Amino acid sequence: MDGIWQTIWDSFWIRALRDPFRYPVDFNERIFIGYLATSLILAVGVYIYLRRHKPDATPRGLFAFLFPKQVYLHKSAIADYKFFLVDRIVFVLMAPIALVYVEPLIGMTDALLTRVLGPVSSPWDPGSPWVMGLAMVSQILLVDFLLFYMHYLCHKLPLLWEFHKVHHSAEVMTPLTAYRMHPLEVVFNMNVTAIFTGLLLGLFGYLTNGGRPGFEILGINAIQFAFYVVGFNLRHSHVPLGYGSIVSQLLVSPWMHQVHHSRETRHLDMNMGFIFSFWDRMFGTLYVPGKDEADYALGLTTGEHVHFHGVLAMYFRPFANLARRWFKPAKAA
Ligand SMILES: [Zn+2]
Ligand SMILES: [Zn+2]
Q: How far is the CA of 165 from the centre of ligand 1 (A)?
């Protein structure tokens, strides 16, 4: 197989099709068993903290706290499990699109910069720790900002909101709710981040005279890895793990993402960040939950979430809603 086909074949999306049981053992995946384990340890910590004044806390109480039936057997959670299974196939069919153009885009960016600015007189060494560190930090900041901004647009633009609603229709949250995303939203996110990552790699290619400083250590960006370790899976769960008021100015805690799913007016359209919360701060959408915010309902303010209990609805309801939205005014007139 030549270049691009080999890249597609080896991509982790195709590996998913070749090996569907890879999810729990691939640390590029959010539900990698190691991240689930650290999340579980943190959840036990939250239990101990919440029950610190109750000496009657028992192992049974702990289990009931970690895996409440009303969450894990809720219709919304069951819809998540079904959607996850079906959507892995849909995802694998769509994901490789970005891989086809990223390599040429990197080469074109490098060539264009060389033509416009001339070759760099003293190129950076792509293997030096500071160049690798700079590449890693700039990539994560770029991708994290893009994810924030696309999420922001999903909340602000009615067309995108129809698709993003699928994610917000969850009435309870389990780690698999992270995968409850309409495929068009996923494709949109993936292609925008792929294009900008390609441009960034092209820039580093130019600065290093054709080099490719790694964004990754052992196949994953170290910053993303660290973030996944500190309880990423709890952001879609009922466990209110906060990072404290100071760290929350820098990082999005699980609890901050949980209130992003809340139906309370004060929580609406807040905390749209993925890893870093300073984007939210810049856009005036940062909300650090206080101690008294344990009780709030999740879902859509209109109550429409009850229509998202089926896999077909998750795929097609956004289109039906859009059609309704467009044809209604014409009828009224
Ligand atoms: Zn959202
Ligand atoms: Zn979410």
A: 8
Report residue 254: phi and psi, to 5°: -55, -45
Using N-to-C axis directions, what is the helix angle for 3-10 and 97-117, rounded to 10°?
Answer: 130
CA of 163 to the centre of ligand 1 (A): 10
Digit-coded pLDDT (tens) for 136-191? 889 889 999 999 999 999 999 999 999 999 999 999 999 999 999 999 999 899 88
> What are the contacts of 122-131 at 24+ separation with CB within 8 A?
123/207, 123/208, 123/209, 123/211, 124/207, 124/208, 124/211, 124/213, 125/208, 125/211, 126/204, 126/208, 126/211, 126/212, 126/213, 127/211, 127/213, 131/204, 131/208, 131/213
Distance from the CA of 177 to the center of ligand 2, in angstroms?
Answer: 7
Q: Which ligand is nearest to the CA of 235?
A: 2
Q: Over the stretch 78-122, which tens digit does the pLDDT of each residue have?
A: 999 999 988 887 877 776 676 678 888 888 999 999 999 988 888
- Domain residue ranges in the chain: 3-332
Contact 270, 298 (CB under 8 A): no
Is the pLDDT confidence value at 25 over 70? no
